[in-house]
Amino acid sequence: FEFDVKDVLFARIDRRRKLPVTILLRALFDELNPNDAQARSVNEQILDIFFDTNTVRIADEQFTLELLPERLQGETASFDITIGDRVIVKTGERIKAKHVRDLTKAGVSSLVVPVDYLVGRILARDLIDPETGEALAVANDELTLEKLEKILSSGISEFKTLYINDVDRGAFISNTLRADTTRTQWDAQVEIYRMMRPGEPPTKDAAQRLLHDLFFSAERYDLSDVGRMKFNSRVGYNQTPIPGIPVKEHPPGVLSMEDILAVLKTLIDIRNGKGQVDDIDHLGNRRIRCVGEMAENVFRIGLVRVERAVKERLSLAEAEGLTPQDLINAKPVGAAIKEFFGSSQLSQFMDQNNPLSEVTHKRRISALGPGGLTRERAGFEVRDVHATHYGRVCPIETPEGPNIGLINSLAVYARTNDYGFLETPYRRVENGRVVDQIDYLSAIEEGQYVIAQANAALDAEGRLLDDLVSCRHLNEFALFTVDRVQYMDVSPKQIVSVAAALIPFLEHDDANRALMGSNMQRQAVPTLRAEKPLVGTGMER
Predict the structure, then answer these.
(1) Which residues constitute the domain of residue 83?
(2) pLDDT digit string (tens) for 131-160?
(3) What is the pLDDT of residues 43-66, one digit of tens each?
(4) Whole-prediction pTM value?
(5) Same domain for 77 and 121?
(6) Residue 132: CA atoms inside 13 Å, Cβ hemisphere, count?
(7) Helix residue spans in 83-240 (DSSP H)
């Protein structure tokens, strides 16, 4: 999904040309709310999902706005707002928090508004003449003087407008509906089908099957457990139903209509100034794909080839009387696995110069390889040290050449969790006292806690001695009182890798020289008789 310069929201499927997002919503109308198909138009349903509404009542040739005072804040008054005889806000004055408080305290629940105030507002519902059944205006129409006169003369008692302002309620979906040329679900499905399958004549079944396979088919689409976990945490989505949308049971690996709407709402909130944009270099957004997962993907590709071969053989005329041994040829699976271990960029001959080089090679993580970055395209940001590397990825040990920052080493105590995210251990602090419990936290979880450093002063019982302790919170360093500390680092060396932890007095070393030192230790030729170092760090054992 993306916005253009005119604040119209577009959807792009498989990196093809973009379509107004309402075409996608209209095409998925069955998923939207089939029970409401007769009662309200699709436009009304779409506007209902994304906008709050203001109700305007009509009596004695006057328009009365049902008032929620907080919605007026930030607007410029186009008429005098009064309580009794007292003028609260003068014409042309900006409505501030104080005015809202005055209106709330006075219990003002409605305001008589002039016609000028309503001109330019956008209708949230179709307006039907109660006598003739004629549509006076449709949802998403902009109110004009002419339309308001028709509404007055028709005898309609109330109508609803969209609650939109310039501060935190943009008219993005309303603008998109205007840019949308389709009128029916079939039009929208044809538009998407023509974009995905140019040159093929669309049929109803083919168009519906294509849409279903794109998002809702477990065979064609898999969000995976990691994807579902990240998705739910990012959109704050906890399976709470969206009003007007029937909740359907669906496998967690496929998308549902609720998911698509949740993404759109999150994107619109960010455009409205709420929420935060993701940091692509945050370790909560980067995960490790282990050997098993990559081998599984290769194995799956091999099985797909076997499936295709079996189907071809079954479709031949002489398929009668064939046994499973005749049908199934397992060579594609074996060939795929052999190719993966034999020629993959990440399948490397183990570095065994000395014990350290072997350990380091096994603890190395790379951003290169299949599905990763290339040296030429990787910019400075992706190579740089990030605050979330603390305790997970070593900030020192990395190659010096074109691979700098793309190949890293795990920190001493780091481990991966079930989802492939890196975790680092912390000692729990309760009521200013360090307890024996160790918790492993991922980068996603760590940000919300206040974490003291390993060198914080403790007494014999494990209580923090200083009144103010240097801590990390939301990836920033600050001083906190003892009662707010929730965790503490396990060890000062937990931020570096095994090779860097072998350097004596590392804290007095220049960063560039430490990088060279940690890399050159791996190239040392081992002696026949191992000896203790004269100066050690304790890591040698």
Answers:
(1) 42-163
(2) 777 777 777 778 788 877 777 777 777 888
(3) 778 888 888 888 888 777 777 777
(4) 0.79
(5) yes
(6) 9
(7) 97-105, 115-118, 145-154, 172-179, 185-196, 204-215, 224-234
